[in-house]
């Protein structure tokens, strides 16, 4: 078992007796992890920071079990019965979606973090592009595609689409996307050189040395990026974890990874 005891869920079912590599992190899963601990289902962009926090958490005596993916996928898994204790989304809409189904504990929801949206390229790329209305994004792609999380359902993709629409360039690149299941998958496309450009959060770019930031999307081009957190069931241990994530030690880790306070 890796530090902190991480569990990965897919389609509401536990992946047992094998190791899954996700963005360089080994997530060990097995029947023993189904017992005890506080299970956190979180947006993929939180992987690096939450993994660091979980490895050092000793607050409630219960280990933290971490599952990462698109906020849309995590929310749907919770709705299908996956045993999450705490959900951290990368936008308010998927938390609202669970709230409408009475699947979050009343009075526990809070805005935990904020983030920024950036355009990235592979580390060795020479692409230069100013983020501005009418920018020649399609030309900058050359013969390649733009990596972006699914703009229909995944928060990072929705923020990215909103920004490109605001800048008047969405129609120029809508047919040249490389849609990904979550923001870390979009990041990986660029890091591996499979796409010349991508849209991710600033924290994702910070976590990946194989990419560089081409430009920062002005906050006014997209809805405010917020990470709401809430318990799916009210328990003292779960509340202790939620309070810890909002506290100074965890916030110092989040800040070191580039997250902002809401």
Helical stretch tally: 10
Structural class comes to: alpha/beta
Helix and strand pattern: EEEEEHEHEHEEHEHHEHEHEEHH
In quaternary terms, these chains amount to: single chain
Uncertain parts: 1-35
Number of strands: 14
Overall morphology: elongated
User: Can you give the helix content as a percent range?
Assistant: 25-40%
Overall mean pLDDT stands at 87
Radius of gyration: 18 Å
Description of the structure:
By secondary structure, the protein is an alpha/beta fold. It folds into 2 domains: 9-114 and 227-256, D-Maltodextrin-Binding Protein, domain 2; 117-221, D-Maltodextrin-Binding Protein, domain 2 (3-Layer(aba) Sandwich), CATH 3.40.190.10. It has helices at residues 47-56, 71-79, 92-100, 137-141, 155-166, 170-173, 183-191, 202-207, 236-245, 248-256, and strands at 9-10, 13-14, 18-22, 25-29, 38-43, 64-69, 86-88, 110-114, 117-122, 146-149, 177-180, 197-201, 211-216, 226-231. The relative contact order is 0.19.
Offer a concise description of the structure:
The chain is built from ten helices and 14 strands. The chain has 262 residues and is of the alpha/beta class. Strands 6-5-7-14-8 form a five-stranded mixed β-sheet.
């Amino acid at each position: 078992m890796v530090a902190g005891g991480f569990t990965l869920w897919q389609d509401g079912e536990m992946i047992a007796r094998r190791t899954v590599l996700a963005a360089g992190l080994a997530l060990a899963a097995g029947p023993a992890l189904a017992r005890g601990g506080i299970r956190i289902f979180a947006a993929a962009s939180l992987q690096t920071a939450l993994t660091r926090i979980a490895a050092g958490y000793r607050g409630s005596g219960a280990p933290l079990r971490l599952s990462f993916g698109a906020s849309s996928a995590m929310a749907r898994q919770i709705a299908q019965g996956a045993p999450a204790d705490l959900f951290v989304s990368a936008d308010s809409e998927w938390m609202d979606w669970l709230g409408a189904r009475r699947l979050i504990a009343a009075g526990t929801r809070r805005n935990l973090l904020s983030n920024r949206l950036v355009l990235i390229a592979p580390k060795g790329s020479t692409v230069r592009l100013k983020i501005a209305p009418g920018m020649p994004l399609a030309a900058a792609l050359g013969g390649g595609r733009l990596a972006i999380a699914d703009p229909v359902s995944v928060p990072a993709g929705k923020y990215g689409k909103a920004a490109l629409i605001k800048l008047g360039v969405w129609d120029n690149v809508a047919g040249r996307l490389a849609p990904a299941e979550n923001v870390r998958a979009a990041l990986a496309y660029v890091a591996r050189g499979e796409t010349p450009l991508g849209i991710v959060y600033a924290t994702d770019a910070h976590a990946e040395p194989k990419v560089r930031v081409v430009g920062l999307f002005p906050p006014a081009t997209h809805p405010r990026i917020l990470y709401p957190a809430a318990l799916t069931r009210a328990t003292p241990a779960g509340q202790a974890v939620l309070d810890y994530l909002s506290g100074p030690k965890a916030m110092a880790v989040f800040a070191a990874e580039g997250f902002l306070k809401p």
